[in-house]
Amino acid sequence: MSHHSSLFDSYSTRRQRPPKNKIGTGAKHDSAISHVMGTATYVDDMLKPQSTLHLAIGKSAHAHARVLSMDLSAVRAADGVIDVITFKDLPAKTDIGAVFDGDPLMVDEITEYVGQTLFAVVATSHRAAKKAVLNAILEYEPLPAILTVEEALKQQHFVRPSHFMERGDAQAELAAAPTRVAGHIHMLGQEHFYLEGQVSYVVPCDDGGLEVYTSSQHPSEVQQLVAEVVDLPFHAVTTVVRRMGGGFGGKETQAAAWACLCGIVAKRQNVPVSMRLDRQDDMVVTGKRHEFSNRYDVGVNDEGQVLGVDMQLSGLCGYSPDLSDAIVDRAMFHCDNAYYYPAAQIAGHRCKTHTVSNTAYRGFGGPQGLLTAEYMMDHIAYTLGKDPLQVRLANLYQNGQSTHYGQPIEHFDLATIMQTLADDNEYDKRRQQITAANKKAEAEGGDKRLGLALTPVKFGISFTVQTLNQAGALVLIYTDGTIQVNHGGTEMGQGLYIKIAQIVANEFDVDLDTVKATATRTDKVPNTSPTAASSGTDMNGKAAQNACITIKDRLVEFAAEHFEVAAEDIKFECNHVHIGDKEVLTFADFILLAYQHRISLSSTGYYKTPKIFYDRSKAWGRPFFYFALGAACSEVEIDTLTGEYKVLRCDILHDVGQSINPAIDIGQIEGAFVQGMGWLTAEELIWDKKGNLASNSAANYKIPTAHDLPKRWSVKLFDRKNEEQTIYNSKAVGEPPFMLAASVWCAINNAVASLGDYKKNPDLTMPATPEAVLKAVMRMQGQAWEIASKAEAETIASLTPDNDDCGIDDDRVKPQQVPHGKDVNPPESEGQLFDEQPEAIENPNVSTARGPAHSE
């Protein structure tokens, strides 16, 4: 029997060339072709038996209310409905809080946000379940609702106790500082808007267990929570995650509820159960990036160097703790960004509101802290009449200093990165040209203004909860020389699987196509940490390497004894094994020989991140293994009449250490930058006065598109290996580039500041939508944004429903119907298009169209 696969090049060919696509090469994503072809299988694409049941949820219509009664008789009688479950039907654990209790699977008596689950409908199709939900008759007693950070702070309404970090005597430094600047920045949240919504599919097993297919970044947490809500031991539940259509943190904790509901029904009915959230439901019932309201009071010397800072960070957490403790902590860790605060007093508040519980989002609180530092640097610069880049460079950390929470600053190359980027971009020359162009536009009455900003990023890599900094892997070698690797990380499009496969291929010096990474499963690698904190490759890569080293040690020991050569003379090279000067075997032949001599060809691997600790009681320690660094320089143009803007140019230099896959890394940098730009310029979450999410669909929530990309865009990697012993001295790349987008926001701020001759910090909010830019422009020009003329009370009354206290724009006159609009019937004009096949409207040809999914 041949053990050589026809899928690969012949060994004679492979012996003459280096192995394909090892580390350092831009190997394509392992699912790239199936992504493009549409053949990649996601949870909702899985073929399901006809007996599969489908779930939909009944949602609360009040932000804070007592549920007096639920008449679900019409729901139960609806077509296709098999069962309806409420809180009293839950068989075991009812709270699925990820870290702290507070997240009930269903409402018992009090609802705490609009969209909270009241009941679940089990039906024969997704559509039948959705329709049946509408038949519920609900009665509430509304209760007072807290919907803003300001209200929560005023009432000291928190989901978790506040946390404080201190160094030195900040108040004394502020009092003695030559210049003192105080400011406030409010930044909104952000919808994850992953391409694949929340979805789960649970299959009962013949042994009483459950197999859970979920779109989750944390398979082990889903396994454990499903087991607890159905009263099973953990080993009876297996969670499987092959891929997600995006996650961004939104599937770290908040994928669990849907898997738990499916698990309960699957156990109750003993049939497979599927559930997916439609986009609008997904946006309403799942948490987002935390909205923050931050204040700072900073004392500086004449050079703009910070002497002391007092900062308050207040995160809008929603109704439950979820991950907010760690998220606000990370905001506090990153409120310095790259700048040294000799004396600092940092407060972090976790504000409880009657809104959906906010959760992890790329950067995990870091961006909200970092942007506060960047806005503060702009404020200092414009107050002192300096170029913001001068102030940023003057405040950069130096090696040997430490952060306000005690972490030493080492291997800090940010000054080099920033200066290299500034030189390559001719920053000084462009600054002069832009200043001159803005003065010319002002003199000539022009409406356009240009802005330029170069901002740094310093982002700590590691989970701030020490326990999570561990990973496992399983490596299997088959007798034809092919290798399978399984690890605890999940694939959400970021290229983790291909990187781990490259690491395994590199360890054995074989072609990448001989290595296959398989679906993440809790029955192969147990007790996995979430794929988050940018640590997927760092931890799982090291675990996979550890497993490979164990197997290699066995193989070398066998070969040394079998061929009677020294162990150091055995080399794995170019898909072959060189055994001293005695023998050269193909990798497959050598593996078969080892198998025939009963050598184990599989191994687990394990890794835990070294050096890290944090004593929260003292707010002091080293919570991060290392820092990822980067810088971006952006140029924008704004229109002072409309507030519209264009990103004309962006140049990025980012530090990924010794890159495992430069193509994947650059793709991550580009994607993160655009997503960050969306948060800071376009994506505006709007809630009405009753706690309803108004921006609840793609129609009224604007994410960036290809048209929003910088007109000129350059992304380069800073070529320097990580000094810490990470996998092949690489650095994490998932989250840090998100914050490079600060350069775009600061450039817009800079363009607005030109209207005040760069001597006043603009009042620009986040996101800097055209409306927000226009407001900042008008305030800079001394104009009032609010309408000065007296509103017509009768007109407003006629347009506003009685007792309407939930409107978003009650302070504006709403548009009226054009009086003659419906009477106008324009004449047919030459060149107008007409439907030449009117019969197709009544009898459309759908033979080539994709039919409805089998579940509908």
UniProtKB/TrEMBL annotation:
Region named Disordered: 1-28, 799-856
Comp. bias (Polar residues): 1-13
EC number(s) recorded for this UniProt protein: 1.17.1.4
Span of domain Aldehyde oxidase/xanthine dehydrogenase a/b hammerhead: 37-144
Claim: RNA-binding is one of the keywords in the record: no
Single GO MF descriptor: xanthine dehydrogenase activity
Family membership noted in the UniProt record: Belongs to the xanthine dehydrogenase family.
Name of the molecule in the record: Xanthine dehydrogenase molybdopterin binding subunit
Species annotation: Psychrobacter glacincola
Phylogenetic lineage: Bacteria, Pseudomonadati, Pseudomonadota, Gammaproteobacteria, Moraxellales
Gene: xdhB
